[in-house]
Write a structure and sequence with these properties.
The structure is a single chain. The protein is an alpha+beta fold and about 150 residues long. It contains four helices and six strands. Strands 3-2-1-6-5-4 form a six-stranded antiparallel sheet, sandwiched between helices.
Amino acid sequence: MNRYPQLLEDVRRILDREHRAEEKMQSVATLLHENVEDFDCVAFFLIDPDHRRQLIIGPQAGAGLDPGCLVVGQGVCGQVAERGISIVVDNVAEELNYVPGHEETKSEIVLPVFRSGQVVAELDINSFRLARFDAADRMFLEEVCLLLTDQV
């Protein structure tokens, strides 16, 4: 059974209930990690307001990510920040521009979050399973990020 419609309603409730951007992101990360199989690391990366070409780790749930300092344009997360598009990587071992955040990650999806038309954050989900993310996952997660637009 597809749980995504119910999870979207849960995200809407979180966004209505929480007031601070950090609380919203933490609650969404926890919801996704706890309710979707093989969403092993769920994290938000934020554009550093003091250094607009750097990404900093934000709220996360599941296995912790620690990619170090990320630069816009570098790695999958940096490409999403630079281009403002979602990227799915079926096998991170085959990605030339991959920056590891967790040693067990096999596949990843990264999606931009916008405020006033600019990328201000991104949702990064790592799975310890190859080719974990399909079109339905991408559509669901893009809807989640659309709900987060202008909220973080």
